[in-house]
Amino acid sequence: MTGRVRLLALLVLLSAGPAAAGGVSVVSQQGARVTRIEAGGAAGAVAVPRAPAAVAADAGGRLYLSHPDGRAVSVVSPDGGVRPLSLAAQPFGIAAEPDGSRIYVGDWSGNRVLALSADGAVLGEARTGPDPAHLVLGPPGRLYVAEREGRSVGVIDTGTMRRVGGFPVGDGPFALAYDPARGRLYVANVRSDDVTAIDTRAGRVLATVPAGASPYGIAVTPDGARVIVSDQHAAKVSVIDAQSLAVTATVPVGPYPEGVAISGGFAYVANWFSDDVSVIDLATGRETRRIPVAEGPRGLATAPDAPEASR
Amino acid sequence: MMRKTTRRTMRNLAALALILTAGTALAHGPTPQKVSQTVTIRAKPDAVWKVVGDFGGIAAWHPDVAKAEWTGGNAEGATRKVTLKSGGTLVEGLDEWKGPEHTYTYRMSDPDLTALPVSSYSATLTVTPDGDGSKVEWMGRFYRGDTGNEPPENLSDAAGREAMDRYFGDGLKGLKAQVEGGPTQ
């Protein structure tokens, strides 16, 4: 971690708002809330505009939410203030530059990704394959988009906002995780029930890993050693070893698990059906508790100030 | 009568429009909805599972089902093609079947808006002990028929919820009647 990020982390810590110090933020779609949680439990909630779906965080602790049914994106500041940005699109996947200077938003029914300024002005747009789902930032200047009905992941150059390439993946790619240490992209394919591992530096697919029933959410540990995937139709998560690229363990969680985030040695899994979040101790591979949240939790974002924060 | 006809025409038109927009109907929309129905039955879980446990045996207990064609047994990847009495066909694939635990999970393969006004769903049916009898829970996750920003009323979240609640609720009522020996409809 650089000194600047460390300083920023300290500042966020000192500001002690709803988004302070470690843990993760969970977005509940039906409940229209963002709940701040830590390994020990919920630490506060913020009401947000209707039906938020996906969430991204920047290094300053701001959260970016997509509202596919509301034609909007909203920005939640660390002090809990909410700023809606309207958008002529069906926003779903979302990512933000660490400094908050740009927001990237997938337009689900428009087959494009928009680049927005911090105040919501459209700076550019890149055409994508059909039904862009989740987005993740890769190395500087690269954004990846899961093209759900294209069996592909699009590679977008954020400088020119053009789709400059793509990777063939499984059927129904939905969620993405990027491991900056290895330059690896992991893609959860909902319909083919597997995870595609891509070496983005070599520009090739490394492996297709069978991973439970309907893998819907995915996160990689900060050291890049393990990938945690939620199996939506089997109420569990699968743990993939990054070295062998095989599932080495499964952990039962709540019904219809979706988003996964990792912070401070714990994996957090949003149980969409039971309105709670499973906390898994990554050292023991066991679920330690379930934290109740507002109805319909789907997306999670890791707090940026945790030293082991991952995207 | 006239109103009914108009509504049906509108529904058909909306379905047609959706088919014509190609792809949208297959899309897995961004706002999932819950469905959950339960019933208690005066019989042991084993006895209930004997009726409800076979993935392809749904026509034997679901009063809305005309027939079901079934391939692959109860193995993962098995399929059932369920024809409803009201028209329309649900093609479903088995994700997981756990006989000893009395539960199975499946998902829709292709949408048929004339069968149910939803674009995709997955569901789990589970039988558990409840006192001297059983409790059957049938729950799932689905997306409305039109996953675009402004769905027509008949393909909205509310329309999907109503149809799914009714389909699951009817099924469990039929199952209860079948197992307890009462009238099936």
Automatic annotation (TrEMBL), chain A:
Pfam families: YNCE. Gene3D superfamilies: YVTN repeat-like/Quinoprotein amine dehydrogenase. It comes from the Bacteria. The keyword Ribosomal protein does not apply. Keywords: Signal. The keyword Ribosomal protein does not apply. Residues 170-260 form the YNCE-like beta-propeller domain. Residues 1-21 form the signal peptide. This is YVTN family beta-propeller protein.
